[in-house]
Design brief:
Number of helices: 11
Radius of gyration: 25 Å
Strand order of the largest sheet: 7-8-6-9-10
Shape: globular
Order of helices and strands: EEEEEHHEHEHHHEHEHHEHH
Distance between the termini: 75 Å
Structural class: alpha/beta
């Protein structure tokens, strides 16, 4: 008697390619698909009975998928809702504003931990712009010294002066996305330089900022070392004070991306449910709104 294996697969799937690809030394079969809704996998297996008549060559079917850049192996045994092709939508949005943008730089402003670097890299790729992190450029100017060590050995004023000089140089360039330091907005001269391009405020709730920063540690955040209490509480308290000091300055930005507004609009439960790509799409939408109003459209 031969082995009877019953495999039941239910897919809600939109295949990008219908051709299976042979990979691996074991002649396994790999197929790629983008899942629209949910992937259900169930199987039942009846143990084989001894047989000398039939031998079957086994091949494994590997479904390669990801969700929010999580590898397929991480998603195994989970039920998930995969997003629509965000990258395609992002590219379409970038093409919509390209004419209006006319090569002007985009400056991302916001509190530490607001995702300026992550979102900035996504935007730069979508727009075919170069990406710069102003903090990293300051570090290069000081022989690779970290921001935390610059604050420690040279003081905040020294750092701010370097930051302003970096922004001055960047203001003479085109086709860049620039992630600025959280405190770059406090100097009026910096706004003079950033207004040569388009400034976008990534407005993230303090609770979410504190959770993000606490999760990765505060060692690289020189302004967070002076509050008593547990890591989350002192981070939350210090961030709240900084936001109160800077909120009016952040509001000078040409466009604002409010993660709380996005959550309400998209029907999400929490800002942590928003992907960086979704935030980048909203940034492009807000930039488009500013550019259209600027042109009187």
């Amino acid at each position: 008697m031969e082995a009877i294996a019953v495999q039941a697969f239910r897919f809600s799937v939109m295949l990008h390619s219908t051709k299976p690809e042979r990979t691996g030394p074991n002649d396994s079969v790999r197929m790629f698909g983008g899942f629209k809704k949910q992937l259900f996998v169930s199987s039942t297996f009846h143990p084989p009975r001894p047989s000398t008549r039939i031998q079957r060559k086994k091949k494994s079917l590997v479904v390669a998928c990801s969700h929010n850049n999580i590898p397929a192996r991480t998603l195994e045994s989970e039920t998930f809702h995969a997003p629509v092709d965000e990258k395609l939508i992002l590219k379409n949005k970038s093409q919509e504003i390209e004419t209006y943008l006319n090569g002007r730089c985009i400056y991302l402003v916001g509190m530490m931990g607001s995702g300026k670097t992550t979102v900035g890299k996504i935007l730069s790729q979508a727009l075919s712009y170069a990406f710069f992190d102003s903090d990293a450029l300051v570090e290069e100017e000081v022989d690779g010294t970290s921001v935390a060590d610059i604050f420690k050995h040279y003081g905040e004023t020294f750092f701010r002066n370097k930051e302003t000089e970096i922004l001055r140089k960047l203001s003479m360039m085109h086709r860049h996305v620039i992630s600025t330091g959280g405190g770059a907005v406090v100097r009026p001269i910096n706004w003079k330089y950033m207004y040569q391009g388009i400034s976008v405020w990534l407005d993230v709730p303090v609770e979410a900022l504190a959770q993000r920063i606490t999760a990765v540690g505060t060692d690289s955040r020189p302004l967070l070392h002076y509050e008593p209490g547990d890591a989350y509480t002192k981070t939350f308290m210090r961030l709240s004070a900084l936001l109160e000091e800077r909120s009016e300055a952040y509001a000078n930005a040409n466009a604002r991306v409010s993660l709380e507004n996005m959550v309400a609009k998209l029907g999400q439960r929490d800002v942590s449910d928003l992907s960086p790509t979704a935030i980048a799409m909203e940034a492009l939408e807000q930039i488009k709104g500013f550019l259209m109003s600027e042109d009187g459209c």
